[in-house]
Structure formats: structure tokens, C-alpha cells
Amino acid sequence: MAEPTSPHLLFVGGAGDATLAVDVVTHALTQARARGLSIHVTNQEATLAATPTVTELADEASAVDFAQRGASAAWARERVAAGERFDIVFGVREMAQEAVAEVADAVDAPGNASEAVHRIRTKDEARAHLAAAGFLQPQFRVCADEAEAVDFLARSTGPWVVKPRDAMGSEGVTRIDGAGELPAALDFLPERGAFIVEEFVEGPEYSAEGVFIDGAPHVLALTSKELLPPPNFFEIEYVIPAIVPDTTREEIESQVTAALTTLGLRYGQFHVELWWTERGVVLGEVHIRNAGGWIHRMLPYVIPGLEWFGLVYDDVLGRPIDRSALKPVRGSAIRFLTPPSGRLIAVEGWDAVVAHPAVIHAELAVAPGDVIEPHRSVGNRVALIAVGADTPQEAQALARKLDASVRFVTEPVSGQGDEAVAGQQPEPATEPVTG
């Protein structure tokens, strides 16, 4: 009698070449290995070569461009026709999610419908779909140019947010209070195609992190967020689980799970952004992937034993999942440090942070001589400290204490202050600055 072969995982999109991206995929593939899965990774050729840590965890790696519509699905069909099989199709990169859905459909593996993934990847389509279903949404308009944006401002209530139709990590997102600030916000967009202008939502911001089990969404935890003041949306703190009353948490979870079902999503992980307002939950962007910002390391601390990616594999393989164990019992917090912009002279206190026993992860991405840019999006993050504690309140307090203990010394860089920061001008510095 022939021995059964191991289940085959096709991991579409691999990892980006950033430290966080590689760490996420390392966890995902390690959890696949622990389940005896055979792993085939695909990625764009250049990124595949730049991420050897990922390819070393795979049994096979192939260069396939997930950004080319239909290319991944066509490649997968050819491999299946040649005798390869894929039992699980999965991926974690935002820009690869439509390819993941197309491949799953092509090889008859569990997955989300392509049209559902395309809907949430196109922000205005997701907003319109949710609004039509009765979920609270800000008024918005897809604009082709500045004139259309000015017209929308005149017909709606400010302040407003200007954002790309398709981006991530708060890239190109700006709050404005009037038409006079619109040109700078448009200049801040990553590209000058169609863009979205929508009403700014007042209220604390949260996100829901979760996984689909048997086709139904299961919220693992809520994350609270702290942001720098507008006009941009640089996130400086996450706390898990969010410190909110049980009634608020239950209402948020109810709205999130209902929205995911309404959007036709049924597979993998999810990360849903939202606001808690006087009117209740206002849903933001919906992502069918894990959260960024090192939340993939924070969640297993607050839910001991959790393997977030492994839950996806177990679900496909029909392995038992104890949902009662998928609840936070501890707290975690992360701070993204915001030193003053300029040329870095020195960093003081960092070694003590790294040595602290409660630190889950700490990363310093700059060294003396580097230029620190203004903090506008996740691409400008230069340092972070993630900690764990018995409660989220204790974790938050410790993370803030460690953040305050680090001292960055910078000096002005000629011309840096000339950049428009979406309506704000940095104050001139004439001597070293610390922060």
C-alpha cells in the first residue's frame, strides 16, 4: 500500500524584501512545515532572488509575476496539467491577493471569489457595497482631477481625507480642511491617476484581526491605534487587545463579521480597519490578509499557542480547531518611534530597551549618518518597540516608558525643510535636536 503524500501548499507572492515582510512569511512557512506541508513559493523574479530566507524554507520556488492579471492562474494550470497538485493556495502580500483568489479558483482549491477580493482591493467599490447593505460609511467620491475634488468638497461636510484608490500603509493619505490644502494633498499621492476624497471620520480608530473557520469570520482580537496629528496618518502605537468595554467590543465584532459576510469573503485571514463614533461602528478598509506592524508577533503573545497562519492550513485540511482557546488572555503593545527629522548624530538608550525582558521585538533601522525623513506613512518607520505584559494597560504603559527612554540626536539637513508636508511646514532648526 502506497504511503499518503503530504498536502501541497502553493504560497503565492512570497515575501517583499522588507524585514517585516520576510518575518511574516517565515512564520507562515514555518507553521506550514510544522504541519508536514510541501511548499512551493512563487514571487516576482527580482524579489524572489532578494528573499533567500523564504526560498530556503520552500521545497520549490518559481518566478511568476502576481501583478500580471491571470499570469499566476495560467502558470498554476500548467503545473497541474504536468502532474503537480496544490491542496492549499495562500499568500500574505496585499498586492497578491487577487492572484491568490484566481489561482485557488484555477486549481479548484478553497479560496475567496476573485470578484470579492477585487471589490475590497478597490476602496470605493468596497465602500459603495457596504453602504448599500446598510453599514455606516463616510460620503466619498472617486475623482479624476482637482476640479472634481473641489466639487465634492463643496457638496459635502469637512474635514476630508484624500487617498489613493489602491494603496496600503497610509501611503499618500492626507487630511485636509479646505480646498486650499488640496494641491499639496494631491502632490502627496503616490501617482496621479484616479483618487478618492471622503469625509473624515471623527472617533478612535481600531482594527479587527481574525481568521475564517469553516467559511465564517472569527475575530481573534481588536487592536487600538494612536496616530500622529493630521494631516497625515502615521500610526505610532497599537495595543492588543484594545482597551474597550465588553459592549463596545461585542458591537465591533458583530459589525465586522457581518460586513465580511456581506462582502462575500470566506477564506484566510482578515484585518479590518474601523472607527468607533457617536453613531456606532464606521467601517474602514477591509484586507483579506494578516495585519502589518508586527501584529503577527503580538497576537501569539496575547493568545498563547496561537498559530495564526496555521489556523488557515488546519481549516483547509479539516483538522480540529478549538475556538474557545482563541481568546486574548494577556496584553501587548508596540510603539513606532518618531525622532525629529534630520541627519542622525546618535541614538542613546537603545541597548537598554533591547535588553528589557518584556520586549517581544525591537528594531532600529537607522544609524548615525542616516537622514530621518518626516513621518508620513509606514515607509518612514525608523524604530519600534513591542512588549508583552499581563494586561494591555500594563503593556501600553511599558511601551510608552521605553519609547520615552530612547533619545535621538539629529541635526538639520539642507533643503529638507523645503518639502511640503501636506500643508505643514517644519519649524527650522539651528542646532542638534533630540526626541
From TrEMBL:
Ranges where the ATP-grasp domain occurs: 127-317
Gene3D superfamilies cross-referenced by the UniProt entry: ATP-grasp fold, B domain
Keywords of the record: ATP-binding, Ligase, Nucleotide-binding
Positions of the UniProt region annotated as Disordered: 413-435
Annotated SUPFAM superfamilies: Glutathione synthetase ATP-binding domain-like
InterPro entries: ATP-dep_AA_Ligase, ATP-grasp, LAL_C2
Lineage top rank: taxon: Bacteria
Protein name per the record: ATP-grasp domain-containing protein
